[in-house]
Amino acid sequence: AVGGTVAEPKVVSAAEPLLLNAARGKEVDRPPVWLMRQAGRYMKSYQAICEKYPSFRERSENVDLVVEISLQPWHDFRPDGVILFSDILTPLSGMNIPFDIVKGKGPVIFDPPSTAADVEKVTEFIPEESVPYVGEALAILRKEVNNEAAVLGFVGAPFTLASYVVEGGSSKNFTKIKKLAFSQPKILHSLLQKFATSMAKYIRYQADKGAQAVQIFDSWATELSPVDFEEFSLPYLKLIVDSVKQTHPDLPLILYASGSGGLLERLPLTGVDVISLDWTVDMADGRRRLGPNVAVQGNVDPGVLFGSKEFITNRINDTVRKAGKSKHILNLGHGIKVGTPEENVAHFFEVAKGLRY
Ligand code: CP3
């Protein structure tokens, strides 16, 4: 120290996770990488937990199990993002919408709302009361991952949640939600409004507990024509983003809208930081159509992971080249499929993490 003063030891804070830098448009030396549904049934370690704990709700609502499952891909593949193991339907339990996720069948809503009186009964979501295990799990994940990767939270988009809830589960033809949208739109709007304010709250809660970026899944936006997207999805996405940005301006928000090739020019209007593309859009076209202000995520076809290692490598290289040298988070165009060889997932991460711009 000069002049006899003793310098305080500098607290060296860990560098920001790569994924956050890419989401914010900062310079990075490679695209960060994680995979949607990276924790799940393609993993033998997850299958073992499913045998011991056959109930999805138990696996996703018990803090120790949530942490253990979220960390399975972290231990095996070291992704740049560690997503909370949960489900977009999890908050419904706190909104007076009883549900279950049944093996072989998927989500089941026991008493699907269809009238104004039913929607009236949907209650406001108070995360700290209804899903305290989510906050506890995120706090533990944040410690465990220790900024070597970003801890990711997520929520369902209002229209996608409304689709499950009104249809009573997964749907092939979406007739119930369309009937409601096109004959009694006011009822649907009041449900969407409730989901939007609740999900804004839920994102804040997740961020306060440890999530460093949050992805919004609008998996059923693909069902909407552009004019209907503008009426039934976009305003509510925007409401969520505006509301969260007021209190958490630096929290990167990622939007995944499945089948959104026909909507790309509209997606940046939501105000999110990152747009996650599915594989039906060429990455170079997507980049051009989305404009320079948002980052992109994606968009390798999940089916590619069933190809040879060489094929997987080529597709990664193609996507990364087309995405350009910044503002790209490498990912699949949708979740990993059941049956994907774990060694191919390992190869995907190995190749991705070895890339340099
Ligand atoms: O990405 C991750 O690793 C985090 C975990 C995660 C799950 N669901 C766990 C899960 C995430 C991000 C979700 C989000 C989710 N849930 C979405 C949006 C993403 C997408 O795929 O479009 C949707 C639409 C749901 C609703 C949902 N949950 C469905 C349709 C199903 C049944 C799927 C099936 O094939 O059975 C679920 C159950 C579910 N959620 C599973 C997992 C790993 C599979 C069932 C199980 O593991 O027992």
TrEMBL record:
NCBIfam families associated with the record: hemE
Subcellular location: Plastid, Chloroplast
Function: Catalyzes the decarboxylation of four acetate groups of uroporphyrinogen-III to yield coproporphyrinogen-III.
Stretches that traverse the bilayer: none
Complex formation: Homodimer.
Swiss-Prot/TrEMBL GO biological process terms: chlorophyll biosynthetic process
Recorded coiled-coil stretches: none
GO molecular function: uroporphyrinogen decarboxylase activity
Alphabetized CDD domains for the sequence: URO-D
GO annotations of cellular component type: chloroplast
Source organism: Cinchona calisaya
Protein name per UniProt: Uroporphyrinogen decarboxylase
Pathway entry: Porphyrin-containing compound metabolism; protoporphyrin-IX biosynthesis; coproporphyrinogen-III from 5-aminolevulinate: step 4/4
Keywords: Chlorophyll biosynthesis, Decarboxylase, Lyase, Porphyrin biosynthesis
